[in-house]
Known about the structure:
Blueprint: H1 2-8, H2 12-31, H3 35-40, H4 46-74, H5 76-94, H6 100-115, H7 117-127, H8 134-159, H9 164-185, H10 196-203, H11 207-215, H12 218-238, H13 241-253, H14 259-281, H15 286-314, H16 318-350, H17 356-363, H18 365-383, H19 387-404, H20 408-422
Amino acid sequence: MAFFKKLKGMDRNVWIRVIGETITSSAMMMLMPFFALYLEGKVDSMLKVGFIMSISPIASLFGSMAGGRLADIYGRKRMMVFSTLGSSIILFSFSLAEGYTAFLILSVLLGISNSFFNPAASAMVADVTAPEERTEAYGLLRVGSNFGTVIGPLLGSSIVYFSKDSLFYIASTVLGLYSIAQLLLLKETLPARKHIKEEKENTKIPIKKVFSIILSDKLLLFYVATGVIISMGFSQIEGMLPLYFKQSFKAHFGEWNPYPYLMSLNGLLVVLFQFPISSYLSNRSIGKTMFYGTILFGLGILSIGFAPPILLSIGFGKWLILFFLAIIFVYYTFGEMVMSPVQMTFVANIAPEELRATYMAVGSMKWTIGGFLGPLLGGFLFDLKLGLWLFVILGTGVVISGAMYRTLDEKVAIRENEQGIAQ
């Protein structure tokens, strides 16, 4: 009963976002697992594919700070609607593009457009939830997102053989409809100022002062620095892994690729277990939770990399290989479920209220930086036929980053003591 009571008690805006995440994730996950394969047929080298995929996160790196600050001034809802509508138009344009330069420009525009959404959307969730409820709320959003992951790749694997361009049409249409739904249904959650004078002063915080506040927050910067390699791991599981499987298995099994099945398993596990796990972890130590989750996640990446050559050398058939890969994806996914919602809660909890979206933007920089470096490293190693080393390097790096989270609780305690003394 307590489980359903918590679900029922979630704010309306959270539920609108959950439904939207489910629908848009289904559309995007029809497209994204096949994006690298789509680009492979459009440009003449895998390094160019990697650069097209990596330039989008770099563009979002420059846009996220502006998007977060604008969301703190003009509201969360405006930025979310603007971002979703812009992304819809850009995705449609991908279906019309030809040539490396056109894809590069569209990738830049998509990165900028996307960067305006996440800081505002994450801040909106923090606005309407108490600190002890945030891990559950962010976990619920991941359930919606991963429900799309369950069905998206399977739908995409069916559609892609008939028309690759249709993937862009569908994703564009869904995002366009979601932008309209947000405009009509979402309530603005930007915290009201106590006094008009205070509001005017806060909205006029000079950008130099904002940067000064952020650069002096060592805890936030520690989180971003340790998170970059984790983001690189995520980006390559979602981006280059289908190509790694293609290179590994094509000589043995032709065009068979286990990736859509594994991503659907990943999504199904999140749908079934994310909210109960988030609920269990809501009152647990954030540092220890991030430590255990990240270590498990990193070991999963290492296992995914080593599995194809080892299983092929033993002489296993494709369905037995799929079985063992599924086992690996189970503990990889559990690491992801433990780690991800708590990370968002951590940033929301340390952020000043008047800079909440800005902090979310800075926290998301680990994804943008990692999303840039990951495809570049992947494209370079894949051109050299060294795909295995990509997952060895990233898996080892994630484990090291996870080990550093053991000190996070201590750092938070020191910060709170310093703030208490200052007050």
